[in-house]
Amino acid sequence: MSNGRNKYQSRENRARVRRILLQDWDPIGVRDIPEASDEYDGYADKAYVMLMDERATAESIAAYLYGIASDYMALGHSAQGKEDARRVAETLVSLRPEFETH
């Protein structure tokens, strides 16, 4: 167990974060392409560590996601990109209590 969490449940929680990033964040629009279902896995793993191990705030997670989209993916800065990152980060933070119970 990592940080007191069940290994199996931790995997399930990480998979849920991956699905949220793919379905709700999806800055490059690949959610409907089955071959790209793992496109955001690395970012999801980092977001999960931020959420559960680092106890990051929604603002910190949103900044991470927004930076990935705007700078690393070179999509540029936009109000919509910032809003999408904020919304998804708040969703993730709202799941923390549920994730902690497993």
Q: How would you explain this protein's 3D organization?
A:
The chain is an all-alpha fold and 102 residues long. It has helices at residues 7-25, 41-52, 58-72, 79-100. Helix 3 crosses helix 4 (79-100).
Topology:
Blueprint: H1 7-25, H2 41-52, H3 58-72, H4 79-100
Task: Provide key terms for this protein.
globular; single chain; mainly alpha; 4 helices; 102 residues
Q: What profile does the largest beta sheet have?
A: none
Strand content: under 5%
Mean pLDDT, as a whole number?
Answer: 93
- List the secondary-structure elements in sequence, H or E: HHHH
- Shape estimate: globular
Helical amount: 55-70%
Q: What is the number of helices?
A: 4
Residue stretches low in confidence (pLDDT < 50, at least 5 long) are none
N-end to C-end Cα span: 11 Å
Number of strands: 0
Class derived from helix and strand content: mainly alpha
> Which radius of gyration do the C-alpha atoms yield?
13 Å
In short:
This protein has 102 residues and is mostly helical. The chain has helices spanning 7-25, 41-52, 58-72, 79-100.
